[in-house]
Write a structure and sequence with these properties.
This protein is mostly helical and about 325 residues long. The protein is globular and about 65 Å long. It has helices at about 5-15, 20-30, 55-70, 75-110, 115-125, 130-165, 165-205, 210-225, 225-265, 270-319. It has 3 domains: about 70-125; about 130-225, no CATH class; about 225-319, no CATH class. It is about 85% helix and about 0% strand. It contains 10 helices and no strands.
Length: about 325
């Protein structure tokens, strides 16, 4: 297998079939998260009651008003929760559809067939429940490995803390357990991640049963151990380089787009600065979404093509 051609073919398919970027975004091209720091009520050891401008009566009144406001808007909060839940479910469903759409479409395009957005969507939709079953099974397997690793190490550390009060012994055992845990996670979950990539293609491309797909992915990995690991290493390196390049491009473009906002804010034109910032954000956000979808498509295409190349090699070897 020519790894340079693998990267080139994945890039070619991703670039020439830009409609796949929609599926690439939901298949793993985008991630989001937020960390909201909390401020302890006893920062500095002070008593915040001393800062109550009206004494305990003011605090009680404020708490009562807040509680009353929550009860008055409970319907709104429930509706908002339902909307958020529906959006999460829609996002998950689109992600599952996109996994099947990309795997089937890239395999078909690699064979020389024609695919469009509608045919890709139908391929993903028709594989929705199979892909969902694969992910449920794969998550359960991953949790099983985590528990197998975590429970004995936790018992070891807990038993050490219970058996001795020696700080040195406790620290030594805790550090040793952490190192062993990290080593086992790397040893198990890197192969498991590769097997998972192969198993997904077994479900979609070969139409294997969900349980059989895991076994098929494992056998393909075992027969091509060195190639599989090299494919994973190259993928990590390529995506890391692409991610760094994207971050640099976003920072430079963001600086250019937000320069008017900065100048207006420094000059004291607050309203104009807000408007300019919103416009800059509206320009930058779609570009980020498109880039994320393109990267997700390339990554998925890369693994699908690697699966096709390795299965072809394996079949020739068996024959």
């Amino acid at each position: 297998m020519n790894y340079g051609d693998l990267i080139k073919d994945a890039f070619r398919i991703s670039w020439r079939n830009k409609y796949l970027w929609f599926f690439g975004f939901f298949a793993g091209g985008a991630s989001s998260g937020s960390n909201v720091p909390s401020i302890p009520s006893g920062v500095g050891g002070g008593d915040f009651d001393d800062f109550d401008p009206g004494g305990s009566g003011f605090s009680s009144s404020l708490a009562a008003q807040a509680g009353q406001g929550i009860f008055e808007n409970v319907g709104l909060l429930v509706a908002l929760g339902v909307v958020v839940l529906l959006l999460v479910l829609v996002y998950i469903a689109l992600g599952l559809i996109s996994q099947g759409a990309l795997a089937e479409s890239v395999a078909a395009i690699d064979r020389g067939a024609q695919r469009r957005f509608s045919s890709a969507w139908w391929a993903g939709f028709s594989n929705l429940w199979r892909v969902l079953g694969y992910y449920v099974l794969f998550i359960l397997i991953s949790l099983g490995f985590l528990l197998t690793i975590g429970i004995p190490l936790a018992l070891l550390v807990g038993g050490t803390f219970f058996a001795t009060e020696s700080v040195g012994a406790r620290v030594s055992v805790a550090v040793l357990a952490a190192l062993v845990g990290i080593g086992l996670l790397i040893l198990i979950f890197i192969p498991l991640a590769i097997i998972g990539q192969f198993a997904l293609r077994e479900v979609v491309v070969r139409r294997e049963r969900v349980v059989s797909s895991i076994g098929g992915g494992y056998r393909l990995f075992r027969r091509n151990l060195g190639r599989s690991l090299l494919v994973w290493i190259i993928q990590v390196a390529v995506m890391l380089g692409a991610g760094i390049a994207l971050i640099i491009a976003v920072l430079l473009l963001g600086l250019v787009l937000f320069l008017p906002t900065i100048f207006l804010a420094v000059a004291g034109y607050t309203t104009a600065a807000i408007v300019a910032g919103v416009i800059a954000g509206l320009i930058l956000l779609p570009l980020l979404l498109v880039a994320s979808g393109a990267l997700g498509t390339f990554n998925h295409s890369y693994w699908t093509l690697a699966y096709l190349r390795l299965t072809g090699t394996a079949e020739r070897q068996v024959a």
